[in-house]
Amino acid sequence: MSVGLLLITHYPLGADLLRVATGIFGTCPTRAESLEVENDAPCDQMLAQAEQMVGRLDAGDGVLVLTDLYGATPANVAGALLARRPHLRMVAGVNLPMVLRALSYAGLDLESVAEKALAGGRDSVRLCPGPGTED
Predict the structure, then answer these.
(1) Smaller CB count within 10 Å for the chain: N or C?
(2) Is the pTM of this model over 0.70?
(3) What is the pLDDT of residues 50-82, one digit of tens each?
(4) In this structure, which topology does domain 4-121 adopt according to CATH?
């Protein structure tokens, strides 16, 4: 078994991240879905959809929820989901390296997948030297 992955993001970020990650891998290595929040979407409707998605994604090892902006509606939906469902972890600030790491390590336990995703996202953020600057 493996950890499922749910992206809850502003539209259209989540589906685009999954599409690019799947293109890089050639296939999606684990169960993964995206819930994209539109600006006028009712939160209770989004939460109900998220619960259904978690039900499909959790094969017994849990689900990692990645969201884009902590404090915004997608993260608030994810936070409400965490309060209702066991076996979930949430990481905010999703980026492509984070998604790739979560998919790559989905065979680990939920806590380890969350840590790998967090490290991948954090460690991929770099200030790159430009002309005339030092490393």
Answers:
(1) C
(2) yes
(3) 999 999 999 999 999 999 999 999 999 999 999
(4) Rossmann fold (3.40.50)
